[in-house]
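User: Before I run my own analysis I want an independent prediction to cross-check against. Here's the chain; please return only the structure tokens and, at the end, one sentence I can use as a sanity check.
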Amino acid sequence: MNNAELPNHKARDLRHWLAHLEATGRLAVIREGVPLKHTLAAIAKRLDGRQAAFFPRPDGHDIPVVSGFVARRAWIAEAMGVEQAGLLGAFRRAVDHPLPWREVDAADAPCQQVVHEFGGAMAGDLHALLPIPTHSEHDNGPYITAGLVIARNPVTGVQNVSINRIQVHGPDRMAILMLPRHLLAFYKAAEEQGQALDVAVVIGADPLTLLASQAITPIDFDELEIAGALHGAPLPVVKCRTSEIRVPAGAEIVVEGKLLPNVREPEGPFGEFPKYYSARENREVIAVDAVTHRRQPIFHTIVPAEMEHLLLGSIPREATMLAHLQRSFPNVLDVHLSVGGVGRYHLFVKFRKQREGEPRNVILGAFGAHYDIKQVTIVDEDVDVHDPQQVEWAVATRFQADRDLIVIAGAQGSALDPSTTVGQMQDGEAAPPHLQGISAKMGLDATKPVAYHGHVFTKVSIPGEREIDLDREIVRGATIDWNDAAVRA
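Assistant: Structure tokens:
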């Protein structure tokens, strides 16, 4: 099914979207009792990009698990109610025109229909309460992989929303990876004052709120307001039971807790988006205060390094990169973070070149836009950047390494890129944070010359090929009598 068949089908909440996928043959109901350790993730991975997977009673647990419901680019556009070609523009408009959220009472918030208190005499066990899968072979136990982590700036009170990997390693304790972004800045500010930082981990958000959480924004920009803009109405939120954090009222599950100051506990290894394991290191720790959820909630898990994981990260980055580049280079027409580049590292840029040398400027601008970008390939407007085969063709026929290659050594890159760790281990230990993620950057100018002789760089095409209607030209149900090569209708 394509967007044209359902042009305005916006995902109101998770259950509405799952019902739509089921009605259109894109949700598979799996047998009851699938093991949470490895088997659940293995089944979801086999269905990745074809069908979402719904697991009733995994390991006998009362709460079902769902995975893979935004595992295709076309599905995300459909959930937004736009054509696939308009996906980046629609996301960028939401970022530029956010809608403040609308607070509702706890009685009107499905995510607080059931409350489990933790702490003190009210002991709780996350492993017993929630069906948390163990995904990859060498993962160090169960992980929450689709939790929206919401925290407030301890200075300004403005919220931030992100998705972080969270290892559940105790009944009420979780270790979290925080990269050098806004959540870590909030935590450092609180820790410097000897204070814990309140956090909420939201599990089972709708597709648009998940997507909004990955927007690249300045600090003190609440991504829940972008979610409202994507929905076309202010997002209903509710105040947490144990803190001032506001969470999506329609979510399935919320884990409330505190990031403890000056506490670190081992986390990892864990299979990350580059399709390698990150090392076991001491990480910051969340102590759980409460869990709230809907009646009969649904637990969402993202299989690491598969399409749901890669697309949720790449599409918001593409929208940001496109807007960033077009401010300086209006002839940038489109961008794409390739799946082969794990949706983070390899950027393809479509560009209308008018002067020699322009692609080099665009390459440098792209490197400055986000430190994750490791390789930039610039192609002409006759190349579809969403088709890796066309991009490879442009490199094969329009690029010469001695003339069109840019290499920048010693730049900041992604600390999760394992190639950046080569030579960094010291006595078996990881390098200190200030030395992690040092990367070389590579730019490829795969554009044709502005001026060339004859048709030497003209892309081969056949007149009328795009206008051909194959349904009119092909005779359905016809057979051929090979004795006389006659067609029998």
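Sanity check: The chain has two domains: 14-307, 329-445.
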